[in-house]
Specification:
The protein is mostly helical. The chain is globular, with a radius of gyration of 21 Å.
Length: 299
């Protein structure tokens, strides 16, 4: 009883401290826009078209800084594989598949959000929207859930019996850039995308949580595929065990190991970061032997 009383007291103190924080200047415009959305559009339109628009805007806007970096000489010192610059041909090749995937795969997939919202009674009202300090722990939980799914499924996709049929497409770019984050076989998009959905199923109570998680996930996956490691740019680097762009860039360069999407603990636990650790010890990129996964038995 004493412990419960202490916990309740601590929560009350925290709530009192939050009252002293300055008001968010964007809260009132956001509230007005949210109320307008609910008054003028149906739940179906908000859940389907609204979610799709957010995905498209977030995806290409988050890709934009990395795209611009290739034209800025001062940013080249942050490029992870400086001997493999982006080319217009590769970017056009990537963009064509991305557009196809977004229209033919992602749109129907995201459209399914309406049935999820209806079935589970997910709220869209302003009054039910969680506060930012309630959102952040949910985002962290989502990252952990998705990362767990991604590690085991991604590692399975590297099995040489299936690699050439599905995951090989994503590895078309040995030196990735932001847009390649969603450059994948349709089956891979659906299979790995289930990690996103498991996270939503276990944490979502409001459509704003779904949209926030969508943005968080895009920020994370586009950054680790960006090909650049710019210090202090992404606040996700503050998270313990966050992998970051160098960790995943090595996966593309080496084909094997470093299977996690966000954190490093699964690779550490199962030893699939061994080659990454060896690479960091040698620091000899030019002498590093890259093994073709179709010739090498999958780890």
């Amino acid at each position: 009883m004493a412990e419960e009383g202490a916990i309740i007291s601590t929560m009350r103190v925290a709530e009192d401290l939050l009252d002293y924080l300055p008001e968010n200047p964007l809260q009132e415009p956001l509230k007005n826009a949210w109320l307008y959305m609910n008054e003028n559009y149906s739940k179906f339109i908000i859940a389907t078209i609204g979610s799709y628009i957010i995905h498209e805007l977030a995806y290409f806007l988050i890709c934009l800084p990395g795209f611009i970096c290739q034209f800025i000489p001062a940013m080249q010192k942050y490029k992870i594989q400086p001997n493999k610059p982006e080319t217009a041909a590769n970017q056009w090749k990537c963009l064509k598949l991305i557009i196809f995937s977004h229209v033919c795969i992602d749109f129907p997939f995201i459209g399914g959000a309406y049935f999820y919202i209806e079935y589970f009674g997910i709220s869209m009202t302003w009054d039910d929207m969680p506060a930012w300090y309630q959102m952040l722990p949910r985002m962290y939980a989502c990252l952990i859930i998705e990362d767990t799914w991604h590690y085991f499924v991604h590692r399975a996709l590297h099995d040489r019996r299936v690699y050439k049929y599905i995951h090989k497409i994503h590895h078309s770019f040995q030196a990735p850039f932001g847009m390649t984050a969603e450059y994948a076989h349709p089956a891979e998009t659906m299979i790995l995308g289930m990690g996103f959905m498991w996270a939503i199923l276990l944490t979502c109570s409001h459509i704003s949580v779904l949209w926030m998680w969508l943005i968080f996930r895009l920020v994370e996956t586009i950054e680790v595929h960006s090909g650049y490691d710019v210090p202090y740019l992404n606040p996700l680097h503050l998270l313990p065990f966050y992998a970051g762009p160098r960790f995943h860039d090595f996966h593309h360069m080496n084909f094997n190991g470093n299977y996690s999407s966000t954190f490093t603990w699964w690779d550490k636990l199962f030893g699939t970061d061994r080659q990454w650790n060896d690479f960091n010890k040698t620091k000899a990129t030019k002498e590093w032997e890259v093994i073709d996964p179709l010739k090498e038995k999958s780890q």
